[in-house]
Amino acid sequence: MRNKNKNTFPRPGTTVFIALTWLLFQATVVFADSASEKAQMLINEMSRASHDLNYDGVLVYRCANQMNTMRIIHKAGGEGEHERLVSLTGSAREVIRDGNTVRCFFPENKAVMVEKSHAGKLISSYLPDPIERIADHYHFEIATQDRVAGRNAWVVNIIPGDNLRYGYQLWVDQDTRLMLKSELKNSDGITLEQIMFTQLEVLEQIPDSLLKPTITGADYTWYETTAKSKMEVQNSDIRWIVTWMPDGFTMSEYGKQSMSMSQVPVDHMVFTDGLAMVSIFIEKLTRDAQSAEGPSTMGGINTYAVLTGGYQVTAVGEVPMTTVRLMANSVKPRD
Q1: At the topology level of CATH, where does 3-211 sit?
Q2: pLDDT higher than threshold 90 for residue 188
Q3: I need a surface site. Which of 11, 124, 235, 309 has the fewest CB within 10 A?
Q4: What's the pLDDT at 117?
Q5: Rg (CA), the chain
Q6: What local confidence, expressed as pLDDT, does residue 69 receive?
Q7: Domain ranges of the chain
Q8: Domain covering 227-333, topology
Q9: What is the band of 12 on the pLDDT scale with cuts at 50, 70, 90?
Q10: Considering Cα of 135, then 234, then 283, then 121, what sign does the dihedral take?
């Protein structure tokens, strides 16, 4: 019988793996307006393809000085999307997505983390919302052409309109419109994170057997978290407010989530502009609880923690340090 636990989840050594789970041949120069329109069209087509196509591929994820190789299998269908992500290097971890439910299997801890989230995605979490959502805060251009995983690709730049968010460079398959490669860029153009397919096959059908985990989790401890979309959240549910955030950011989810080293579930809010995402965790500190303050960075993921009124507030996201610092410092109890 599996043991259910909703308090703490042991996650040593899992940061890079989770980060992946919670985003050339020179082309002919074109005028800016037409290039921007073509780039926006490609991004919309890429977002649709990531949901509508069946594919099986191997990708490499680089973050800071760490690199992981993974296999991803995606099945589209009228009953929702299904995905399986398998780590091919390091610990034999797996992530299974069935619709909006995501299960993360950690054999080194004999643990499974289950999250029910409206934003439940694996590789497609690196893809933007429809272009209308992000067009006011980013500029778009087709930079050039390239080849990735043996496929011809357009290279699309997504350039932020301010210094409060990062830029992106996307390689879009000219045939299927799937994303073949993605790089997260800071304001100096330095690559902070990279996802790249080394093999990719688009299929008519995906057998259900390919989507089943090799780990049953029968003797594992199961940790469950839940989240509500903004539409489901009642005002009475929200105990905290974020009084500052960059233009275009809105709260997309609110809920309770288990965290390592915490004896009670913490308040968890997710904010997004349709592309960048910031999570804010608010934890009541107990007498023997470990606390942290200040900044930390891993690749493109920045974290900033502050203490306020017996609570620890932690903001984490793939945005510049200034953004998470200002958001963390702006969290206040709701009147």
Answers
A1: outer membrane lipoprotein receptor (LolB), chain A (2.50.20)
A2: yes
A3: 235
A4: 59
A5: 20
A6: 97
A7: 3-211, 227-333
A8: Phosphorylase Kinase; domain 1 (3.30.200)
A9: very low
A10: negative
Q: Residue 197: which pLDDT band, with cuts at 50, 70 and 90?
A: very high
Q: How far apart are CA 55 and CA 198, in angstroms?
A: 13
**29-38: per-residue pLDDT in tens?**
333 456 688 8
Residue type for position 196: M
**Distance between CA atoms of 55 and 259, rounded to whole angstroms?**
33
Token pair listed for 255: 């809920």
3-class SS letters over the chain: CCEEECCCCCCCCCHHHHHHHCCCCCCCCCCHHHHHHHHHHHHHHHHHHHHHCEEEEEEEEEECCEEEEEEEEEECCCCCCEEEEEECCCCCCEEEEECCEEEEEECCCCEEEEEECCCCCCHHHHCCCCHHHHCCCEEEEEEEEEEECCEEEEEEEEEECCCCCCEEEEEEECCCCCEEEEEEECCCCCEEEEEEEEEEEEECCCCHHHHCCCCCCCCCEEEEEEEEECCCCCHHHCCEEECCCCCCCEEEEEEEECCCCCCCCEEEEEEECCCCEEEEEEEECCCCCCCCCEEEEECCEEEEEEEECCEEEEEEECCCHHHHHHHHHCEEECC
CB 285 within 8 A of CB 266: no
